[in-house]
Design goal:
Layout lengths: L9 E2 L7 H9 L3 H15 L9 H12 L3 H15 L4 H11 L1 H18 L7 H18 L1 H11 L4 H27 L6 H23 L8 E3 L2 E3 L8 H4 L3 H29 L5 H27 L7 H17 L4 H30 L4 H30 L3 H19 L7 E2 L13
Antiparallel strand pairs: 1-4, 2-3
Helix pairs in contact: 2-8, 2-9, 2-10, 3-4, 3-9, 4-7, 4-16, 5-6, 5-8, 5-16, 6-7, 6-8, 6-10, 7-8, 8-9, 8-16, 9-13, 9-15, 12-13, 12-14, 12-15, 12-16, 12-17, 13-15, 14-15, 14-17, 15-16, 16-17
Subcellular location: Cell membrane
Membrane topology: Multi-pass membrane protein
Protein name: MFS family permease
Length: 443
């Protein structure tokens, strides 16, 4: 295992250029780049992340229709898809690296729409429903997350940070906008119920994701024909087997997994945790809105800052907001202003963290295996997001208090900050204009 990454085949950073030049270059990006960015945002709007607000209203409707416990609905509609679906991302990333983003996006979007349409046909069969939901989420993740980060990295190499931030903003905005719509469709006056809503959502996915993948998603250099197969031009960077053996990648992955767990746990245990500290459910709901709103700010600010620096230390204050927010939340008993401060810190970090992973991977390891590395990192981080709320709740049930699990979680987020502080200096920007073979470079 090594700590360094190769710096060959790179170009000097453009961080010395002014903000006017930075924004001007983004505004004057080629039409293909703008179309690809638009396509990425559309794919994220109809991704499982963008449609996540639906499950809040689907689960009670499903329990009422089938007589199943709501806990069973949470397991089937939320936990299993979130834990199992992202496992496919490293493999999908490999297909994107080998076959190209458009081909993977088109096939995944078709399967995503078709499997979503099958969900209401499973009726009350929980096992069948679980299998179809997992497959639907898997292809939804493949059509979105497996594709968009690679497309942004290639089209906007000097604006990756803000591009990744926009990718994170899209599902956040979608969740906020779609939430009342789904309530109206499922349990409101529209009267579609959970089954009718899934059929409608499947149609929307087909009408949005498939044309988007076909006509908007692209990469700057088109693949060239070599007989029956398509060969993509080789991109600069470090091969996957060498990258995952470096301390840099291991540190990034552990740091992001630990840091992301903090805001996610607080979101899931907010009512019970803060009721122990004298806050009403209405107050907690309001502060959660502040968390979500601040996450958008964190995404945009984090993306802009990352694009404009060559110093990895800027990652440290972004992640440090998590343990600071947790400590304030833990020691606070009854102060509403302090509660807002804690939630704002957690929200900012939650947003900024979403763009950190792909940015750091692209910066340290280039684009040769970017989609695979990003998929693997995201899968491990998502595993943390799925398990951490359950583990904290389980410890709380065993001990009767949130003290032990929240203190343990805070300690892990401090570890995340330390690992981020120990990251080595960024290598110069990888050169995307040429594509030499870097497979012999030392990792």
């Amino acid at each position: 295992m090594t700590t360094s990454v190769p710096t060959g085949d790179t170009v000097p950073s453009s961080s010395e250029a002014g903000w006017k030049s930075y924004l001007g270059d983004l505004w004057n990006a080629p039409p293909g780049a703008k179309a690809a960015l638009t396509g990425c945002l559309l794919l994220m709007l109809v991704s499982p992340s963008g449609l996540s607000a639906m499950t809040t209203f689907v689960i009670p409707s499903f329990a009422k229709d089938t007589g199943a416990a709501e806990s069973s609905g949470i397991l089937v509609f939320v936990t299993l898809p979130l834990l199992i679906g992202p496992i496919a991302l490293p493999f999908a990333g490999r297909w994107v690296d080998q076959l190209g983003a458009r081909r993977v996006a088109i096939r995944s979007a078709i399967l995503y729409a078709a499997l979503t349409a099958l969900i209401p046909l499973c009726g009350s069969s929980v096992p069948a429903l679980a299998v179809v939901l997992i497959l639907s989420s898997t292809f939804g993740f493949m059509a979105g997350l497996a594709v968009v980060f690679k497309v942004i990295s290639i089209w906007l190499p000097k604006h990756k940070g803000i591009g990744f931030a926009l990718i994170g903003v899209a599902p956040s905005v979608a969740a906020a906008v779609f939430s009342p719509v789904f309530q109206w469709l499922i349990s409101g006056s529209a009267g579609l119920g959970w089954k009718g809503t899934y059929l409608l959502v499947a149609a929307v996915i087909a009408l949005v994701a498939i044309p988007t993948a076909m006509f908007l998603i692209s990469e700057p250099t088109a693949p060239r024909e070599t007989g029956p197969e398509l060969e993509l031009p080789r991109l600069p960077g470090i091969p996957l087997p060498k990258a995952i053996r470096t301390r840099v990648w291991i540190s990034i992955t552990i740091s992001l997994a630990f840091a992301a767990a903090g805001p996610m746990v607080v979101r899931q245990i907010a009512v019970g945790f803060f009721s122990e500290r004298g806050f009403t459910e209405a107050t907690v709901s309001l502060t959660l809105s502040a968390l979500f709103a601040t996450s958008v700010v964190g995404l945009l600010v984090g993306g802009l800052v990352l694009d404009r620096t060559d110093r990895p230390w800027v990652v440290v204050p972004m992640l440090a907001a998590v343990p600071v927010g947790l400590v304030i939340a833990f020691v606070n008993h009854g102060s509403i202003p302090l509660l807002f401060v804690a939630m704002i810190l957690l929200g900012f970090a939650y947003g900024a963290e979403s763009s950190l992973g792909p940015f750091l991977i692209a910066r340290y390891f280039g684009l040769a295996s970017f989609a695979q590395l990003q998929g693997l990192t995201l899968a491990l981080s998502t595993l943390s997001l799925g398990l951490s709320p359950y583990l904290v709740s389980a410890v709380q049930s065993a001990t009767g208090s949130y003290t032990v699990p929240v203190l343990a979680l805070t300690a892990l987020t401090v570890v995340a900050v330390v690992l981020a502080a120990l990251l080595p200096k960024f290598p110069p920007q990888w050169m995307t204009e040429s594509s030499p073979d870097l497979t012999t470079e030392s990792a």
